[in-house]
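Recall from the previous lesson that a structure prediction takes nothing but the amino acid sequence as input. Here we apply that procedure to LysR family transcriptional regulator from Candidimonas nitroreducens. The sequence below is the only information supplied.
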Amino acid sequence: MGLRQLRYFVAVAEERNFTAAAQRLNISQPPLSMQIKALEEALGVHLFDRTHRRVRLTEAGAVFLEQARLTLGQLDSAVQLTKLAVQGGTGLLRVAFTGSVPLVPGFATLVRTFREGFPHARLHIEHMPTGPQLQALEERHIDVGLLRPAPQFQPPPHLQLTPFWRDELRVVVPTDHFLAKRKGRIAIEDLAAEPLILFPRDISCGLHDQTMQLFNKAGLVPRIGQVAREGTAIVGLVAAGVGISLLPDAYARLRTEGVLYKRLQADATNCPLFLAHRRDQPGSLTQRFIKLAQSLIAGKAARR
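The prediction returns the following tokens.
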């Protein structure tokens, strides 16, 4: 059994037709059929139920497809990471991140892998709100920003935004709050009378604007009871009973006692994180950092 057979199998499984799969692979159909037959013999199972026009995965074939995709995805990721690692790279890379980024799965892996793959590069990382990050990119004070822009943000032509992670906005409530006992999702209307603890807009324009839009779309005006400049402070204030909040589910990884994270019954609850950089940095450490991030993201997608 080889990787070529796995790629052939995935093509047939996705096309559900040997002729279409052969065209996709740019080979003739007889060698493809022979390789699939050899794969089935090696496994000792039938992977497909065949008809004259179409093929259908057997139960065993469906299981094998999931594992084959996983294997090929991990291989592609490993190849990309290896190529990046041997390219070398020197100089300084300045990276800024907004509040919850260190809590996001993949951030630590990204930083660690970059440091291991580019041992001669100097990596400077600092916390910086989204607005100042955009200004720092304009003024070339940082090379890469990990940020959460406002929902309607349109980057200027010289800035490139690359998706990095997609969080989901959650309602953060004290464990003794009546909404903590509510089964299912929480409606925005349930929050209308609750004191809301928010980031000020200059600290997190993305979360601030998204929260306001959710209330406005429901025809409501949020009752803002408190602002706090740190996510951990917001969670702590919720635990103390000062109010409730809307935060990315990354904060749930803090496992703070006295709070629960409830899902929202609303549209537009995704609050994505982006990698931002200038387009005029080809071949630099910036591009290598972005490509590494994309490779890691692809590997995680293959495992999901």
